[in-house]
Amino acid sequence: MAKLPPVTQLTDVVTRILGLNPGTFTLQGTNTYLIGTGKSRILLDTGEGKASYLSLLVSTLSLDQLTISDILLSHYHLDHVGGVSDIISYFASNNLPLPRIHKYPYAEDKVKCQPLEDGQVIKTEGATLRVVTTPGHTEDHVAFYLEEERTIFSGDCVLGQGTTVFTDLEAYMNSLLKMKSFQPTKIYPGHGPVVQDAISKLGEYYQHRLERENQIIKVMAQLGGTVTAREIVEVIYKDYPKNVWEAAERGVVMHLKKLEKDGRVERLDGGKWLLKREAKW
């Protein structure tokens, strides 16, 4: 994958600013986006709170004498909301109007926000953003559809490289279909490069989950008897680095919970699962 520059003007409306927090699960870092064409922009996500990110954001704003009217947060994970307090402190200490902060409500929110609702529209010069609730990665996750471009900011529902994790598989798969219903031309992901063929990528993600589900059923049949999620991971992810196995195991558990709801597996004590005899792949 090509290295992403710290700041990239992707279109006349969208500028990507990296959160400068690269890692195994953040790829080259969290993508934050300045959106709009006027002097007052919308900022989507804020990185995890790196001092270097605040400096990069401020220098980007200063270059064209821009300000931020609104901060939109895709979900509660630290690498997306961690920079909020630093940004607000900077605006306050420089006697600048404080941005309004918007987020879908979540019980563990630590930042005071104006609540987002599905279908809500937030505007600035050159940009009309429609809120698309997309639970699954987290229960409070939202995407944003940019009407002027027919593009979608997917947060962590879809990444620019690889696949994402989720806490509710059924909700996540429904969210993929919901984003696809907007027929977006491109995806601006929470991590990684821009996805140029949005419809294809959303279909690929959905199909991948179906294939993983069938793969789990097949492995359970091969292993026979009762199995744990880790035993399934050791087969499916045998060629992957072991430092991703923990996250993979969480994903397998989510699949097993969905399969249990579908009546294809049975949950037993001690973290064991049993394939029902009639289950097919």
From TrEMBL:
Residues forming the Metallo-beta-lactamase domain are 29-191
CDD domains according to UniProt: LACTB2-like_MBL-fold
Question: Hydrolase among the record's keywords?
Answer: yes
Entry keyword set = Hydrolase, Metal-binding, Zinc
Q: What SMART domains does the annotation carry?
A: Lactamase_B (SM00849)
Name the InterPro entries for this protein: LACTB2-like_MBL-fold, LACTB2_WH, Metallo-B-lactamas, RibonucZ/Hydroxyglut_hydro, Sec-metab_biosynth-thioest, WH-like_DNA-bd_sf
One Gene Ontology BP term is: secondary metabolite biosynthetic process
Q: Give an example GO molecular function.
A: metal ion binding
* Pfam families, A to Z: Lactamase_B, WHD_BLACT
**Similarity comment:** Belongs to the metallo-beta-lactamase superfamily. Glyoxalase II family.
Its recorded name reads 265_t:CDS:1
- Which organism is the protein's source? Paraglomus brasilianum
